[in-house]
Amino acid sequence: MGAAGNASLDLLPFFLTGIPGLEAQHGWLSIPFFTMYIVAIVGNSLIMAAVQANPALHEPMYLFLSMLAITEVGVSVSTLPTVMGILWFDARQVDFDGCLAQMFFIHTFSCMESGVLLAMSYDRFVAIYNPLRYTAILTLPRIISIGLGVTLKGVALMAPLPVLLRQLPYCHANILSHSYCLHSDLIQLPCADTKLNSILGLAIVLATFGLDSLLIVVSYVLILYTVLGIASREGQQKALNTCVSHICAVLLYYVPMIGVSVMHRAAKHASPMVHTLMSSIYLFVPPVLNPIIYSVKTQPIRQGIVTLFSKRKMLFSFKGNMDFQSVHKP
């Protein structure tokens, strides 16, 4: 049975699903989806470039923001080939190993994003609880260690998933319910016992998203307790204002995730389009809105992006003048 299963694994491709009920409109739908990808990738890349180019932004808060931007670019790039392939070319077929690779990268970057949001909540707690020792506690080596820890955690936890799925026989029609490969979809397809995969998947969810969200809540309880101890109302407001962007990022990440989980369990018989919409919101909305929120609400980031464009404009102007002088040189 195992040999037959593995043989079918090599012969049968996987087929992704577009947006159920709107197949005829895929051409038009490609416009907003591609726009979202452009906004997400360009917006987050601008944040990374602004932080890298401006020494004034080499502070813990902005370095963690760069890490968040990296994870969001990673999530967007991971889903882009199959989503746009379906919307543009109706390319639904994907080979098994490619599907496993996409699943690994989507889940790994999502796990890393959760870890970075936790690190950012710790950053806000240290900044408010002990502002005088803020930079002494969150030194550059420590921030790099946190970033590496978040990355290694994501890779180590997600690596067993494709390995285990690769060993299972697949005897049914390999049709997935999304425009990208997710573990929750793939685990439904093997014609063998997937109890180990299910247990491992649940353990990973609890060890990452469950634990991270709990610690983020604890961080904000401690932040609120600290803020209430500040004597002046102005000081309280100033302290809380530094957390607004991060709170928005946390809500944008966890609320859709909770919505997807509730839909999978409490609304199994809902329209497939509803499930697709919820999953799309979870994967696409945070990378699009987070750079906009941080650019609007965080003045140093906004100034850093403006400075980035100003420097580039000056560079092009200088190069243009040099070219003009070389052409008209006697």
| Average pLDDT score | 88
User: What structural class do you assign from the helix and strand content?
Assistant: mainly alpha
**Low-pLDDT residue spans:** 1-9
Order of helices and strands: HEHHEHHHHHHHHHH
Strand residue percentage: under 5%
What is the distance, rounded to the nearest whole angstrom, between the alpha carbons of the first and last residues? 83 Å
Percent in helix:
over 70%
Count of beta strands = 2
**Any idea what the radius of gyration is?**
23 Å
Strand order of the largest sheet: 1-2
Shape descriptor: globular
Biggest beta sheet attributes: 2 strands, antiparallel
Count of separate DSSP helical elements: 13
Secondary-structure blueprint of this entry?
Elements (H helix, E strand, L loop, with lengths): L1 H10 L2 E2 L10 H28 L6 H30 L3 E2 L1 H34 L4 H4 L2 H19 L1 H7 L16 H4 L8 H34 L4 H9 L2 H23 L5 H26 L1 H29 L3
Antiparallel strand pairs: 1-2
Helix pairs in contact: 2-3, 2-12, 2-13, 3-4, 3-12, 4-6, 4-7, 4-9, 4-11, 11-12, 12-13
